[in-house]
Design brief:
The complex is a heterotrimer of chains A (about 230), B (about 120) and C (about 260). Chain B is mainly α and about 120 residues long. In chain B, about 60% of the residues lie in helices and about 5% in strands. Chain C is flat, with a radius of gyration of 22 Å. The chains are: A alpha/beta (about 230), B mainly alpha (about 120), C mainly alpha (about 260). The interface of A and C includes residues 51, 54, 73 and 101 of A.
């Protein structure tokens, strides 16, 4: 059984089709890049997987079942916005995750916090957006999940943090788990990808193994992307 | 060892090339245990699956071998290493000669030129 | 999991209103204290003023309690925080049940604080005589029944708000405006339904029917009890219906921005 499967997935808002017949299969043990320009449907797919949107037609299956309490236990999701109660301190957010997720490793979270040089007693309201995003990344990566879904994790971060994010992804990654990374900044991450899925105007336009695409097109994924979307 | 990639070519092929050179230049010495797939992947900052694929390729060339419970080791077959170095040298030499040809030097002229260069 | 959700919901709603609890009680005590000192214009004034502040705090408590429940619901279930709420390993019903319990618990404590503050400020034998003078024939049962109806009406208002938000936020645009419109429409609609129900009850009770037909109906304490009783039951039914519908809608799934 596939870890994640999207079957004929479509989504409309006010009769406007934002996703058209998306079919995706993601097995365990893969790092998958969900690539596309902004506003082409990447986040919509991710929100459908996470039960934040209800499909107009088609379905999302996680381990063969629709989004449910079971799927939420095994998916660790980093959205592109800050979703924490800003009145909390970092320590309190760790406690919150520990209470709700059995697979949250708070020891690891504190280690990562130290590495990123953040103060555990600081309130989120006192933090810059960048710092808040780092806290969220720590929370998400400190869960021992089966599927990590990272929506634009590299947007607007400095190179040091970017390297740190890639390291964290690689060191957390294990054979039983898969990672989906949505981004339009491809050059930075393409070397860690197994598979790529190109999304344009709500449709999948290209999918395959990253090295196969490089071999076939004789150039980088980034370049293929630029040529295809002329950006 | 340090890895360096361009994104134009399949990453696993570049990994194979660089690991191979690592063995030829004794970064990984004859008979030595090589780090785990995970550690190597972290070192090269690539996907462990890709590293796995590269190691499989090297194993096919018999440059490395797997000892069931202990992990992967560099081959003890010096002859094989020399042969592979020889192949690689041949390839590089051919490349060199052909690029010299492009600027108008044939093989004999090139050899003379090289000898002059070394004497200086 | 319900307990954990409830803990964080309660924490958030209480965060501000416990301060008002404290202020209402302190000003009530100060007011009463100064009021006890006889023959002093200044102390009497301070006493009355403090009681006035206490009453202002009482309004603060009730208004803030209701608004914080709604704001928490919007933030937690539909705005940025919803990204976390809906990805926690809990069912939508648990999320909603936690909101119901938060409403019941916080409203209960608020009402208790309000009553205690009022009793501290104004309770005296004179007050009871005064009430008896204005409403001859009033009994404890009528007072308690009135209190129950007021509380149920307040609770109905809160839950109606949650339902209106749930409906308003199902659409893709102008969600808040639609929530208001929807809440208002349902409230008006249900007001007519309530009148209708009272009329139907009137078909079996001539005195209540008189309220509709007679130009000058006699409102006896007996009739008042009847009307209050019907109102209590009607509000209770509305509250239950609101919550059932709201839970159903939420379980169908959300579409957050």
């Amino acid at each position: 059984m596939e870890l994640l499967e999207c079957i004929h997935l479509s989504k409309e808002f006010d009769n406007k089709k934002v996703l058209k017949d998306i079919n995706i299969k993601i097995p365990r043990g893969k790092i998958v890049g969900l690539l596309g320009k902004n506003g082409m449907g990447k986040t919509t797919i991710i929100k459908l997987i996470n039960d934040l949107l209800t499909p107009t037609s088609g379905e999302v299956l996680i381990n063969g079942k629709r989004p449910s309490v079971e799927s939420k236990k095994i998916i660790s999701y980093l959205p592109e916005r800050t979703y924490l109660d800003k009145g909390m301190t970092v320590k309190e957010t760790f406690k919150f995750f520990e209470e709700f997720y059995d697979n949250f490793d708070s020891k690891k979270a504190y280690e990562l916090l130290k590495k990123l040089d953040l103060d555990k007693d600081m309130k989120l309201t006192k933090m810059s957006k960048g710092m808040q995003e780092k806290v969220q990344l720590i929370l998400v990566m400190s869960r021992k999940a089966d599927l990590y879904i990272l929506d634009e994790p590299l947007g607007g971060v400095d190179p040091a943090t970017r390297d740190y994010i890639l390291d964290t992804i690689l060191s957390n990654f294990n054979e039983g788990a898969s990672v989906i990374i949505s981004t339009h900044l491809i050059a930075d991450i393409e070397r860690i990808l197994d598979e790529v899925i190109f999304i344009d105007k709500g449709k999948i336009v290209l999918t395959g193994s990253a090295d196969d695409v490089r071999k076939r097109e004789k150039t980088s994924i980034d370049e293929v992307f630029r040529r295809m979307f002329k950006c | 060892m340090k890895f360096d990639f361009d994104n134009e070519r399949p990453i696993y092929i570049q990994l194979v090339e660089q690991l191979r050179i690592g063995i030829l230049t004794s970064t990984f010495s004859i008979g030595d245990k090589i780090p785990s797939v995970r550690d190597l992947a972290m070192l090269a900052k690539v996907n462990p699956n890709t590293m796995q694929k590269a190691l499989a390729e090297l194993e096919e060339e018999k440059l490395i071998y797997t000892e069931r419970t202990n992990g992967k080791f560099v081959t003890k077959d010096v002859k094989l290493i020399n042969k592979i170095r020889d192949n690689l040298a041949k390839e590089k030499a051919k490349e060199f000669f052909s690029s010299m040809k492009k600027i108008g030097m044939d093989e004999n002229e090139t050899i003379d030129y090289l000898q002059d260069l070394i004497k200086k | 999991m319900l307990g954990k959700l409830l803990k964080y919901d309660l924490k958030w709603v209480y965060k501000l209103i416990v301060i008002y609890y404290g202020l209402a009680l302190v000003f009530a005590l100060v007011g009463r204290g100064f009021g006890l000192i006889e023959n002093s214009f200044i102390f009497d004034f301070i006493g009355k003023f403090s009681c006035g502040v206490s009453v202002a705090m009482i309004f603060n408590i009730l208004i803030n309690n209701v608004i914080r429940i709604w704001v928490r619901y919007i933030n937690n279930v539909y705005k940025d925080e919803s990204y976390l709420t809906h990805t926690l390993p809990v069912t939508k019903s648990e999320i909603y049940l936690s909101k119901i319990l938060t409403t019941l618990i916080t409203m209960f404590t608020s009402i208790v604080v309000v009553l205690i503050s009022l009793v501290i400020c104004y309770w005296s034998d004179n007050l009871i005589d005064f009430i008896k003078m204005i409403y001859p024939g009033i009994s404890w049962s009528v007072i308690i029944l009135t209190g129950i109806v007021l509380v149920l009406e307040l609770l109905f208002l809160v839950f109606l708000g949650l339902l209106a938000i749930t409906i308003g936020y199902r659409s893709n645009h102008k969600k808040l405006v639609k929530s208001f419109a929807c809440g208002f429409a349902i409230y008006m609609g249900l007001s007519f339904v309530s009148l209708g129900i009272l009329f139907i009850v009137g078909l079996f009770n001539k005195n209540i029917l008189d309220l509709f037909t007679s130009m000058n109906p006699i409102v006896s304490m007996d009739i008042l009890k009847w009307v209050l009783g019907v109102a209590a039951i009607v509000y209770l039914v509305y509250i239950i219906l609101c919550n059932i519908i709201c839970n159903k809608l939420l379980c169908k799934g959300v579409n957050v921005d």
